[in-house]
Design goal:
Number of helices: 18
Radius of gyration: 25 Å
Helix content: 40-55%
Structural class: alpha+beta
Oligomer: single chain
Strand order of the largest sheet: 1-2-6-3-5-4
């Protein structure tokens, strides 16, 4: 006891003064082959992230071959003129690197992460994949089979099925946005190595591509390194490609994708709104977060905490395609799932939340919490090089200035309650929402129709 009595305790650490933070600004340049390069030195980030954006959008896919951009993206890591698919994977593993690729409406994106000590080797592999992909018949056939195997699983997933139906409903049949991003069974099964090569030859070239490099670049001659790797990638100049405007029909209506016997109903309620070039975007982000961005949002407080209908409902805005001339668009949506018997009551209460928001507005407290969550968490959100690189790549893809994200946080902090309320009310008007329900039509059709939120149509889940 005497030893405890004489024990000396160290003083409790005190918090220091908070350091100002801003989203990192990149340095912009270009290689001799026309490749645009954004670099961002992040001291201490020993895992370097590289993003390469290719101007190969989904709308450029040939009619009847939807999904070829996805197969091409996956095939980039399936061998080059120097390595077979197995050798390429082994070389990536030897330098501790990962290489992923995916296709979306704006284009194809390749994402590389590698320890800075192996950056030169990994950039060489990335350059080979872009410069001379093998697109071997056998590898493309395997990727096509894999994609065909994925489709039934996606259709069986209620949230994926709802997303497919909402796109089909919102956009005209002639629009690429009306069809699944990765293609359908009918279109994917037509894809072969020749189709992949033709799409690559038509759309992949350094002059229309951008590389983003983020990490600790201390002691690295990045210009020389890029010149020796990605600088060896050549290609012709591309003619400007016309971009059709995004059109959508958000007439209020309900589509039930029938799943007999389903114990839950998947909800997806959406419409098309402005992209990030619109001045309303910061206020819309803030208002949407107050509506359904977190567990303390309006929708969760009512549908989850008060009524117990759901484990959670979320509201969000997702950019589909961005353009400075106003032809871009985003998807504004509310998603979640509820138990089948309470589908009608849950939708009724959801619409009541939207009406109450329009009549009474947000509170200052709600907006203050949203600002703290969105702006205050930013330094943690961007701790990794990959997070910074991904956001910089988003900015390039969406034709935004390099300081957009930093300015965005300033705008969020300066947005008032009245402005945030107006933005979210305009984003989710009660009479201009397309509602997709994946569930048991026999149980939910009648109570949903009684709500008067739009004409109800039942479609097969197949």
């Amino acid at each position: 006891m005497s030893e405890l009595a004489t024990m000396e305790f160290h003083p409790q650490p005190q918090a220091g003064e908070a350091k100002p933070w801003a989203f990192p600004a990149p340095t912009r340049g270009a290689l001799g082959n026309g490749l645009t390069v954004l670099r961002c030195h992040r001291p201490g980030q020993q895992l370097v992230a590289v993003e390469v954006l290719l101007d190969a959008p989904l709308e450029a896919e040939p009619a009847g071959f939807e999904g070829v951009a996805t197969i091409m993206a996956r095939a980039f890591s399936e061998g080059t003129d120097k390595h077979s698919a197995e050798e390429f994977a082994a070389e990536l593993e030897r330098c501790g690197a990962t290489l992923d690729a995916h296709a979306d409406h704006p284009g194809v994106r390749l994402s590389l992460e590698v320890p800075v000590s192996r950056l030169a080797k990994a950039l060489g592999l990335l350059a080979d994949a872009l410069r001379a992909p093998a697109f071997a018949d056998g590898e493309v056939e395997r990727l096509v089979r894999n994609r065909l195997d994925e489709i039934p699983h996606e259709l069986a997933n209620p949230s994926r099925r709802a997303a497919k139906e909402l796109s089909k409903e919102l956009f005209p049949a002639a629009s690429r946005m009306s069809r699944p991003r990765q293609g359908t069974e009918e279109t994917v099964e037509k894809i072969d190595a020749a189709a992949v090569r033709a799409f690559y030859d038509r759309h992949v070239r350094p002059a229309t591509a951008t590389a983003v490099v983020v990490g600790d670049l201390t002691g690295i001659d990045l210009d020389a390194l890029l010149g020796e790797t990605l600088g060896g990638w050549t290609g012709s100049r591309a003619e400007p490609r016309p971009v059709p405007p995004v059109t959508a029909d958000d007439t209020g209506r309900v589509i039930i994708v029938d799943r007999p016997g389903a114990v839950q109903t998947q909800l997806l309620i959406g419409r098309v709104g402005p992209d990030r070039h619109d001045r309303v975007w910061p206020a819309q982000v803030l208002g949407t977060y107050c509506l359904g961005g977190t567990l303390t949002s309006r929708l969760d407080r009512v549908l989850r905490e008060e009524k117990g209908y759901t484990y959670g409902v979320r509201a969000f805005g997702q950019v589909l395609r961005s353009a400075p001339d106003g032809t871009g668009a985003s998807m504004l949506a509310i998603s979640g799932s509820v138990d089948t018997p309470n589908t009608g009551p849950a939708l009724d209460d959801l619409w009541k939340v939207l009406r109450t928001l329009a009549e009474g507005g947000l509170t200052d407290a709600e907006v203050d919490v949203a600002v703290q969550n969105l702006v205050g968490v930013a330094p943690l959100k961007y701790e990794t090089a990959a997070a910074v690189a991904s956001t910089l790549a988003d900015q390039v893809e969406q034709h935004l200035p390099d300081d957009y994200q930093a300015t965005m946080y300033q705008q969020l902090a300066a947005t008032g309650t009245v402005e945030a309320t107006a933005a979210v009310v305009n984003a989710f008007p009660v009479d201009r929402l397309v509602t997709v329900l994946v569930g048991d039509a026999a149980q939910i059709k009648e109570p949903v129709a009684a709500l008067g939120i739009g004409e109800v149509t039942v479609v097969s889940a197949e």
